[in-house]
Amino acid sequence: MSRKVNILGAFIAFIAVNNIIAFSFNLGAPYYVIMGGSLLFALLQSKVLSFDVPMLLLYLACALSIIGNPVPAFFQPWGRLVSFIMMTMLISPFIKSEFLYRFRVVTFKVVQWLLQPVVWGSLLVYFLGISFGRRDFAGITTQSMLIAPVSANVMITGIYFLTRGKKLKRNYRIYFVVLAIASFITLLLAASRTAI
């Protein structure tokens, strides 16, 4: 089971991070097919232990919000709700199973490492003056509202490794200090008060 968990977790992490990169291939609709297929695969790997009631209530509240509000059709509210439910069933604690628990841990860890090159690349393109056709700073992501939370997340990761109590080798300590500083710079460049 652990090999399947590692492969699926790394694959989903790569697909998710790839989808936010400006110059990378965007999967579009196949992205949701991959996520849905991955959810189905994960559900077949181990018995479902339980469902999370608060998440179920959130899904219900979202559906009632669409029913009770005049949402313009071009927003495709039902399609977005279905994709939201599918994604959160995969990565949130809504469905509890042994396989999904392990999968989420692997996916989380891999995403943390994959987001670090996004920050480094974003800082690099800023100093090179590359903007991918946008006026605001978005680094190598598709929009500034992505680089901001990515930067904040990576900064927290860097600080976590520096403060978690285990002694780090000098090279790792330097790396995480510089990573936290670089993340903070890209966070300021993104000018997102919420992410800060």
SSE ordering: HHEHHEHHH
- Cα radius of gyration in angstroms: 19 Å
Helix content: 55-70%
Count of DSSP-assigned helices: 7
> What are the low-pLDDT stretches, counting only 5+ consecutive residues below 50?
none
- CA-CA gap between termini: 39 Å
The average pLDDT score comes to 89
Number of strands: 2
β-sheet strand percentage: under 5%
Strand order of the largest sheet: 1-2
Largest sheet: 2 strands, antiparallel
**Structural category:** mainly alpha
CA-based shape? globular
Task: Tell me what you see in this structure.
With 196 residues, this protein is mostly helical. The chain has seven helices and two strands; from the N terminus they run ααβααβααα. It has a two-stranded antiparallel sheet with strand order 1-2. Helix 2 packs parallel to helix 4 and helix 5 packs across helix 6. The protein starts with a helix and ends in a 6-residue tail after the last helix. 21% of the residues are buried.
Gist?
This protein is mainly α and 196 residues long.
